[in-house]
Each structure stands twice: as structure tokens, then as C-alpha cells.
Amino acid sequence: MIKKSVLAVLLGAVCLFMPIVGSHTDANAEAQAAYKAFYSADFYSGTKIQAEKETEHYPIASMCKIMTLLLCFEAEEEGVLSFDEQICVSERASGMGGSQVFLEAGAEYPAGELVKSICIASANDSCVALAERLAGSEEKFVERMNERAKQLEMNNTIFVNCTGLPSGGQYSCAKDAATMLCALMRHKKYFEFSKIWLDNMQHPEGRVTEMANTNKMIRSYSGCDAGKTGFTNEAGFCLAASAQRGTMRVVSVVIGAESSKARFEKTKEAFDYAFANYTNKAVLDANTPLDEKCPVSGGKKTEMSAKPERSCYIFCSKSDKDEIFYEIEFEKIKAPVSENDAVGYITVYKNNVEADRLRLLANESVNRLSYLDSLRQIADRWVI
Known about the structure:
Blueprint: E1 2-10, H1 26-32, E2 37-42, E3 48-52, H2 65-77, E4 86-88, H3 91-94, E5 108-110, H4 111-121, H5 124-135, H6 138-151, H7 174-185, H8 190-194, E6 198-202, E7 208-212, H9 217-220, E8 224-232, E9 236-245, E10 248-257, H10 260-277, E11 278-284, E12 293-297, E13 303-308, E14 312-317, E15 321-330, E16 333-334, E17 342-350, E18 353-362, H11 371-382
Parallel strand pairs: 12-16
Antiparallel strand pairs: 1-15, 2-3, 2-10, 4-5, 6-7, 8-9, 9-10, 11-14, 12-13, 13-18, 15-17, 17-18
């Protein structure tokens, strides 16, 4: 059975055909000289907002650590790594150099503290310590990084190390960097670390290393709560960052900026443009049952309420007039039914193009009709 519901969405109604990708003016061309590549997108739909040379290959310095962090959070979620466990730091990890928290060789540190130091201080020594714990060596860990990149369809990325330190043959692109940041942000625990501005690394022998977040935008831009900086002479100044306002989350990547100030200014410009011109229309709420009821046979109730498996937002231009509607397909459901059982699908359309498809779940339980209940129903039908 298919039911259709139409939501008329008027989002400004000024220009019906405004392009998603921003136009290039002389000012844009001048600004682009301050960086090599750029990409911004809506986090939820993946829709590109603006882009310049987004698939061209460049070194991305410490933005490589986004993949290192992703594998750490996935390992923790899978039970392979506990953030409470102690990790012994090798001589190699301790001597990495570059941005670091000066881990003591032979000392043990909680895995969670090492992860936090990467998020805040871009610690190379912590990256290698975690890589060795998860894969036995940095080389084996890098193999996993490249495997995960393929799974994420990051087709313009090759990792050679887990830190982003200069190394021949290592490259990525702005679009791929955005892809892996989006994957990392799907781990809620990441935000427990990414929003920290100042913290300390406590060393077993009593030393303290002060840490300040390299992503200055978490303090200077309202809604910015995630990201990773990068810098080497080869890569220039890089930044992958994300900001959330209301129902909209934007991801931005800048590669090869000529200065630290330039990467932050371009990111702010990207965020401002996205929030000013686009929105995510809330269509379905995971916690709100649909008005339409799902028929049930053989149960104590003949119908039940259903809900979407997750919330649904549709990316729209504020100046466009969009028609958003959904179609419901209930399966033939027989009692008994337990809450959260799958009962059908809901497909969301934007301007007659499929934009999302979700499972529908039972919002309540329905018990099977007993023999006595059946007799009562038959008797009730004969009562005049």
C-alpha cells in the first residue's frame, strides 16, 4: 500500500534556478590565489555548495590525521580499542618530532588521552603510538588507512604515513578530505575532544604538556565544533572544518593557503555563504510518529503507529521554491509486532526526484489476537 503526502516548501521564492556552486567573480579569482583548492558541502546530503580544484592532487599535511582518528574511533566502537587502556610508547613514536606532546618512551598513557592530543594538538607521537597499538606498526596501519579510503570512495588519496609529515607519494584532494571528516563526525565521541580549546597532557613522571587547539575557529566562529589543521612547507596551510547552525551542518576544506590567516578567512567565508543561502528542511523526525497508520492483521489492534528509522532533512536553497513530498509503503503486517520492527519504507522526493529513502519502524507493540478475542469479535458483529 502506498500513501503520498505533500509538503509545500516556500523558501524565499526569489530565484527558481540559483546554481548550487557559487559563481566566480574577479574577487573570487583574486582570493583563490591565496589557496590551491577548496570544497564546501552540506554534511547530511553531501551536496556540493562551492568548489575549486576539489579533485586535484595535493599534499594535505596533518589533515591525514583525520583518517588516523577515524580508524581509532572505529576501533573503539568495535571493541578493539578501549580509551581507558594503557598504551606503551615506543622509542620510534616518542621521537617523531614536528607537532607533538613529548611522550616519554617506555611510559604508558591512556589511549583516550592520546586520541585527545591528536584532536587538540595534532600530536605526531600520539598518532604513531596508536598506529602501533592497532596494527603492530605504522606501515601496517597505513595499509588500513588506504583500505578505508577505498571503502569511502576517496579515489584521489594515497596515504604513506599516519601523521602527514612530508613523504613522497602521499596526496589527497579537498573533496576526499571532506569525505573523511564527514565519516569521522559520525562518531559522537569525537565531539567530546574536537571542541576542547585548552587542555593538558599529564605524563606519568609528573610533567605536564599544555595543549591548545590548532583549529582556532572553534573559538572564533559560532557553531564550529570540528576540524583538523595542517601545515608543511610543501602543503601550505590547510584546514578541514565543520560548523552546525540549526538543522544545517556545513563542511569546508581549504588546501595550500598562503598563510594561516588565509585558511581561516576562506573557511569563514564558506560557512557564511552556506548559512546565508541554504537550509536543511526538516521533513521527518525520528521521534515523531507519522499521521498515517500501518494496517495490522490478526492483532488486538487493526492498525498501529509507525515512525521513520531516523530524522530526514532535505538540503534546499533559501531562494528556491521546492516541492517536497513523501510516499509511504507499508508491508503486509501480521501480529504479533514488536516496537521497532520494520514495517515498510518511506521515500522522500524533492521536485519529483528521490532525495532519501528510509525504513519505517513500528512505534508500538501489537499482540496476536487470542482465540477468545476472536470469538468476542465474532459475537460483537452479531450484536444489534
